[in-house]
Amino acid sequence: MKKLFTTFLLCSAAILAKANTYYVSSTGNDANNGRSISEAWNTLDAVTNFPFVSGDIVLLQGGITFNGNIKKTGLNGVTFSSYGVGKATISSDMLAGIWLSDANNITIKNLIFKGAGYMTTTMWKNGIDFIMSANATGHSTNSIIDNIESYGYGGMGVSFYTESALYGFKNITVTNSLFHDNGMAGLNITGSWDDPNSLIRYSNSNVYIANCKAYYNHGRRDYKDNWSGSGILVAGTVGGLVEYCEAYENGKDNGSMVGGPIGIWMDDSKFVTIQYCVSHHNKGGPARTDGGGFDIDGGTYGSVIQHCDSYENEGTGYGLFQWTTGNKWSNDTIRNCTSFNDGRNTKYGAFTFWGASPNHKVTNAEIYGNRVTVDKAGKALSFLGNYFSNVNVHDNEFCIVSPAVLYTTLASNVTLSNNTFPCQVLSVRTGSFKVKRIS
CA of 172: how far to CAs of 93, 230, 345, in Å? Predict the structure, then answer.
């Protein structure tokens, strides 16, 4: 009898834990069970309060706006999406659209997230907000974001952030999505990376971002400590690929004097590739700080930018910057890219190199196979300081039209070789520039 009773309990638990699809509609009622359109819930509070199990699917009625937000801790294996015609909108006002702490195996797709507006000075929330808490006991894995739009947030359109010194995110996929009109950034993946007492120096791994657009993420003038207004950033990550993305018109309201935004960039990471992307017309804010197209930033190792196009950025087209992070900038490459009239702020060039100190150098850099055109006042190469080691700029094409110059000062430990200058005497271009990829 005891054995039969135990079997009964186990079977009952299995039935209770069975995955289901739950619906939220404009005509629903939170007193319903949510398991069909006719028994749909009505508000996002019902979603927040329900104890979902792995395999559950939550579907919001397409074309309908739902006020409020979703907030869950420890969620595992749940999908959020829309049903019917069009995408559902989560209008979260001053809150995060969806806030998930210590979650695993989450899919968010076919939804729109709308905030109160990035200009709202008290609004610092993110549209989609993945957080690993300081008490996390393992990595968050297998997060998928696809075909979403996130806008109007004072923070980021989408944010992955860890408060833990050891654990972050593994296997992140973000595809076919739009991030625009946010304050701090469009898409931001960051975490811890600079703890010399930890064997895990990078908290995230295996990040894939493709076919996304980040635009009009203007920055925040009330934030002075560091940059605001970037398009896409991957930081604190080992192993990442960003491809077929576009970033434009970001950063105009960056309020910092010490750090500025970039269209698409990486920071304190290892083995990250950015390829087949376009970044243009980005800005650095009133102080004109940064505002570039692409950047391999401080503490990045063994990473590549290739087959990308940059044009008409206020800052550099391609930055190679080493700040005072504890990780070394080394063995990074920019190849087979184009730059047209970048560096509208005259301290920047199409390619800009900066090392913060003798102990924080740009080392072992390869810049080759690129095509650069500067036909306005400016420069192709800009060296800020002289903290470089084994920087090689070779086999590039430079079209330099007076009054533009190749560089004003060539830093030591930088080698230029086998570069060509096919159009130094051409007249200034007129009309718009059409991006053409290098195969």
Answer: 26, 19, 35
Where the chain has pLDDT below 50, the residues are: 1-15, 196-200, 424-439
Instruction: Report if pTM > 0.85.
Output: yes
Phi, psi torsion values for 14, nearest 5 degrees: -65, -40
- Please answer whether residues 134 and 104 qualify as being in contact, where contact means their C-beta atoms are separated by less than 8 angstroms: no
Q: How far apart are CA 144 and CA 128, in angstroms?
A: 12
H or E segment and range at residue 366: strand 362-368
Closest CA to 439 of 277, 246, 241, 307: 307
Measured CA to CA, the distance from residue 132 to residue 384 in angstroms comes to: 37
Question: Cα(42)–Cα(280) distance, rounded to whole angstroms?
Answer: 42
For the stretch 64-73, pLDDT in tens is 999 999 999 9
Max Cα-Cα span within the chain: 96
Q: How many Cα atoms within 13 Å fall on the side-chain side of residue 409?
A: 9
pLDDT value of position 6: 42
Q: What are phi and psi of 77, to 5 degrees?
A: 70, 35
Q: Are the C-beta atoms of 127 and 166 separated by less than 8 Å? A: no
Of residues 157, 137, 159, the one with CA closest to residue 149: 157
The radius of gyration of the chain from alpha carbons, rounded to an integer in Å, stands at: 24
